[in-house]
Amino acid sequence: MLSVEQALVAINKTVIPVSATRLPLNEVAGLPLAEPIVATVDSPPFDKSLMDGFAVRSCDIDRVGVELDLLERLTAGEVPSVSLSAGKTVQVMTGTQLPAGTDAVVKIEDVSGAESNRIRVEIAGIAPGRNMLHQGESLQAGETVLEAGTLLRFAQIRLLAELGVAEVSIFRRPEVSILATGNELVPVDQTPGPGQIRNSNESMLIAQIENANAKAVPLGIARDEVDELRAKILQGLESDFLILSGGVSAGVLDLVPKILQEVGVRQVFHKVQLKPGKPVWFGQYSREDGKQSYVFGLPGNPVSALVCFELFVREALSCFQGGKKRDDFLQTAFLQQAHLVKSDRPVYYPTEISFSEGKIWAKPVRWVGSADIRGTSRANGMICFPAGEKSYQPGDEVQIRFWHTEL
Ligand code: AMP
Ligand code: MG
Known about the structure:
Molybdenum Cofactor Biosythetic Enzyme, Chain A; binds magnesium ion; six-stranded mixed beta sheet; alpha/beta; elongated
């Protein structure tokens, strides 16, 4: 049986990154950049005022009460027609291009007689560069401003917009089909009959998929019946990824691995040393259109499905999108309460993680096992305990992993 680390290596080896696509700038939020971006312009493109005020030569302001002759008044978008010489000033607004010779801007609040043609500066001095930006001070043409692989969020998108990059080369969102399996399942909006439960995994997986910047395609419920499973699996294999929940363990009706292999999905691994989630299945399928699909069979237990998604599916989705290796896999935190671990496999334990006093704190939630979704709903991450028997004490260092990461 593979360890978690070996399973992640297998996923990295199997999942081939999708080729880059070009999309309009307004459609790339949340997607990774497929090429580095080199600035073609300076920012700001000209010496620019950061305040409403008066452009000055800082050497002129050598005492309180200096008077300056006003040459012109400019608003943003207007271009100076003069340059500054000794004793002169130009009125500017935030964003105005500054006249040549300017090396500081005095705020309008620090001036009297602003309406007249001779203003009086009420401060004793001003440092060169104050309240202005020089051309290219933020970035210069020719500089690489974003590396390939950077996740495009609002700030990066604004940068691309300023550089005039109207179309961006990105790795597109993978499409992920979800198929819940189980005779006991009914849709969320129905009342379960005797022995039945709601298909809660589907809604959770949709949320996880969307959080991982992928597109979820729910296929509903398949009964534990060969023909129905086969038909829905074939439908799911038209997506980049197919995630099944349930039917991969050792029960009489756990038919999923056998059907996957029958339809031609190559098994990469089945079972990983972890708790919860040991029965997890992963495979790869070469489609007739020459593209690849990747299949995860997640155990049906909601917590197992959640943990396996965060550990394995998220990694695979990231590989598909050209994935830089995650370096946030584990972080060190301090345990907030005593905790006993007794397991032959590493345990991924739902945990409330918080920050205070410059440290990360981890508080294992009250939890009665992999079917306990109520306990898990208090958690925002997990502690990764090594296998073995150990009585952890408050303050002990543990390794944690956040869920729903925004990184
Ligand atoms: P299985 O992996 O099919 O043996 O299922 C393990 C446990 O998870 C059983 O108690 C199932 O009833 C439950 N389960 C399976 N699929 C789902 C689902 N989609 N939503 C909620 N619980 C499920
Ligand atoms: Mg089942």
